[in-house]
Specification:
alpha/beta, 7-stranded mixed sheet, 3 domains, 10 helices, Rossmann fold, flat
Length: 368
């Protein structure tokens, strides 16, 4: 039977989860907890839950309820009306409580709130990885793997068989021949693996605000896909007129200038897939973010690479066009020319942080 304190704890957790779920859109669009992200948990600030109570004034201080009072006279001590200097307060202010939720819990909330379907991996998505399992016993091995119980029983049997065992003085001393050790064998286990390739325009027209939008949306995309797959590998590409593969920190912090050739990012993604992620074994997701400004006739090269190399091997190819005061925004119109021919191409226009929530649903709502 559950103790009262355990029931109260579970009830508190349900209340906290309800508060987080109630404000999930705000957490998603503003990313205020990303800076506190640990390896597997995230701290989220929620308002403290206060129980209403009466606050008594000083005895004999007069006022309404104690002798004669005047219309409009404040009930509490120290309250001010109108303008004028105030006194230092002695009451606590409102505080925020930080609660920790696992990334799995956040992904579950995100999926429920956005009504995201579970992903169904494509055909050849299974990779065999070897896991070591301690399932057997061996006569040799390191001391750290010595099996105490098996060793003791073996020594006891030997001493009884050789009449060395004394019930009145039951001392068991194992010899080297008595020792038994845990042993392992490698067992192949299937894993559904996903490769995520992020591409971002870092030319002069992409501001820090636009890159912050990319950072927040990428975090939630990662959170959802990690829940769907046992293994997730990420690669990052930045580009202006030239593309290069970088690490995650560089991806979000780089500020460059210059023109834009999106086709260079597509060529880099094609090379990464060929080098690291055979399409027969990996579920490949490409997420591209840009303000839609591209150089001259480069869009035709982009469409050719997409149709011939990237779209045929991708579970999803998602393009998010972040609104910028400098970019032309023409590129998404070029992509719409081929969108109807490819179910795995998703396009989203992101006009600010408040649009991140709906953009995530557009990208991940297909269940691919």
């Amino acid at each position: 039977m559950a103790r009262s304190i355990d029931r109260d704890l579970q009830r508190f957790k349900r209340i906290v989860r309800g508060k987080v779920r109630q404000n999930l859109r705000r957490y998603v669009t503003h990313g205020e907890m990303l800076g506190r992200k640990g390896r597997e948990v995230v701290s989220i600030p929620v308002p403290s839950i206060d129980i209403p109570h009466f606050r008594h004034g000083q005895k004999g201080s007069g006022g309404v309820g104690q002798g004669d009072g005047k219309v409009g006279q404040p009930i509490g001590r120290g309250q001010q009306q109108g303008d004028g200097p105030g006194q230092a307060g002695n009451e606590p202010g409102r505080h925020l409580r930080e609660v920790e939720l696992s990334l799995d819990e956040l992904a579950e909330m995100l999926g429920e709130e956005l009504e995201l379907p579970n992903i169904e991996p494509k055909g050849k998505d299974v990779i065999k990885s070897k896991k070591d399992r301690y399932t057997t016993i061996s006569q040799t091995g390191p001391d750290s793997l010595r099996h105490f119980k098996r060793t003791y029983k073996r020594a006891l049997k030997r001493q009884i068989a050789t009449s060395e065992y004394n019930p009145e003085r039951p001392i068991i001393v194992p010899t080297r021949e008595d020792e038994r050790f845990k042993s392992w064998k490698s067992v192949p286990e299937p894993e559904a693996n996903a490769a995520i390739i992020y591409m971002m325009d870092v030319s002069g027209s992409m501001t820090d605000d636009q890159k912050e939008i990319v950072r927040i949306e990428s975090f939630w995309i990662d959170t959802w896909l990690r829940r769907q797959y046992d293994g997730v590998q990420r690669r990052y590409i930045i580009h202006d007129a030239v593309a290069r593969e970088v690490d995650e920190d560089t991806f979000y912090r780089t500020r460059e200038s210059g023109g834009t050739r999106i086709s260079t990012a597509y060529k880099a993604a094609q090379q990464i897939i060929r080098r690291d992620f055979p399409p027969a074994d990996w579920n490949i997701y490409c997420f591209q973010f840009s303000d839609g400004d591209n150089w001259g006739e480069d869009s035709e090269d982009c469409l050719k690479i997409l149709v011939e190399h990237l779209l045929p091997v991708s579970n999803l190819f998602c393009y998010g066009q972040v609104e910028s005061p400098y970019g032309s925004g023409d590129y998404i119109r070029d992509l719409r020319r081929v969108q109807d021919e490819w179910e795995n191409m998703i396009l989203s226009e992101i006009d600010g942080k408040d649009a991140i929530y709906d953009s995530i649903k557009e990208f991940l709502g297909t269940g691919r």
